[in-house]
Specification:
Elements lengths: L10 H36 L5 H11 L5 H37 L1
Amino acid sequence: MSKKNIEPQTSEEVSQEQQEQKVVEKKAKKEQKQKKADKKAKKQNNEPKRNRAKETFSELKKVTWPSFGKTMAQTGMVIGVVALFALFVFGVDALLSWLFSLING
């Protein structure tokens, strides 16, 4: 058996060794975090990709569609409002045309 020379270490040497050990531990933790992040990224990339059309139809199944009667009532409201605005614009146009005809003589 061989004996190692055991010499008493100074406090400076001990503190340097502790600092070096802390640095090594920090590096090891960073490497572990990086490995976990890499594994997570690989899992996300390996997930099967679904067809966009299938996803669209599955979302459309979740939609609550209005009844036919409600749709017709809302369509009637839209047509009515558009007709009112058309009459209003026509009236303003007719008024402005009449005023310009008076001015130009």
